Amino acid sequence: MDNEFIVSKVLSNNVIICKRKNKLYVLTGKGIGFGKSKGDIILNESSIEKKFVAIDDEDREDYAKILQNTDKKVVAVSEEIINMASQRLKEPLSSHIHVGLADHINFAIRRLSEGIDIVNPFLVEIQTLYPIEYSIAEECINLVKERLNIILPESETGFIALHLYSARVNQSVSDSLKYTKLVKEIINFIQKELDISINEKSLEYARLISHLRYALQRVDRGKTFENFLSPNLEKKLKQEFKVSKKVCTYIEEKLDKPVPESEIGYIAVHIARLINNI
Q1: Does the keyword Repeat apply (predicted)?
Q2: Residue (of 165, 160, 187) closest to 176 by Cα position
Q3: Where do the domains of the chain lie, and which CATH numbers do they carry?
Q4: 23-28 and 50-53: which strand pairing?
Q5: Residue 135: how many CB atoms within 10 A of its CB?
Q6: Fewer beta carbons under 10 A from the terminal one: N or C of the chain?
Q7: Is-contact 30 49, C-beta < 8 A?
Q8: What is the per-residue pLDDT across 262-272, written as a single tens digit (0 to 9) for each?
């Protein structure tokens, strides 16, 4: 029958891998895997809380490797995290996360067992740039503790948040990390140029790094937006414009792409707010 889910692998009582119409699905539901074996058929979809096409065809081989080489308990908790995050966000996530998140959690657990410190130098930036994903990631850390009796460090909250954000916008984690890393470098550059220390908990800081994130994406994708700023603003904010121009030159060097004039003005305004706050 077309609506049959054929069990391919049981990961836990709450997560199973199934096939239907030559597609691979991850099925989650309380007790859905209890008593199930490979080859069993599931017809009662009322017990399924959420079903995913686990991977696109291009990633099918990678997911097969994850299933083969990773502890099924780790894959199961990863799938529960994805399900929970999708429900919290009220939107589907890119299927790439099924490969990336399980692989990341597995690697983090291995490093932890080997006594290797897991450091996240961009934790503050991730928390500020992606607050919704970070909040959900905190729940994910608790879920890992419940299911695996493993306490992941706070640094992993940031990395999981990055995976969730990347899956929301269908962007690679490496690209998300690239922008986050560059934002941190720009902040350090501004602090050095102005000889100031920026309060990372201030509203001005949050506004600046949020603007920088979107500015970097616009530059990287060759997009521009209209400049509604006063043409006399540069005369009023001489120091801020000077620093902003240096920032934009820095961005051009890092991304190897031109930065539109309009970006200079808006970054200058955010820098002025920082200075006024200090």
Answers
A1: yes
A2: 165
A3: 1-54 (2.30.24.10), 55-171 (1.10.1790.10), 174-277 (1.10.1790.10)
A4: antiparallel
A5: 13
A6: N
A7: yes
A8: 899 889 999 99
- Residue in 144, 148, 123, 118 with CA at minimum distance from that of residue 133: 123
Q: Which helix (H) or strand (E) holds 139?
A: helix 131-148
Q: What residues contact residue 73 under an 8 Å CB cut-off, 6+ apart? A: 11, 12, 147, 148
Residue 273 structure tokens: 């707010």
Closest CA to 86 of 36, 5, 26, 40: 26
Beta-strand relationship, 23-28 and 15-20: antiparallel
**Which pair of tokens denotes residue 249?**
């030159």
Please compute Rg for the chain using Cα positions: 23
pLDDT at 180 over 60: yes
The number of beta carbons lying within 10 Å of the beta carbon of residue 62 is: 15
Which two structure tokens, joined as six digits, stand for 267? 């970054």
CA angle 180, 186, 191 (to 5 degrees): 130
> Which of 242, 250, 237 has the alpha carbon at shortest distance from 186?
250
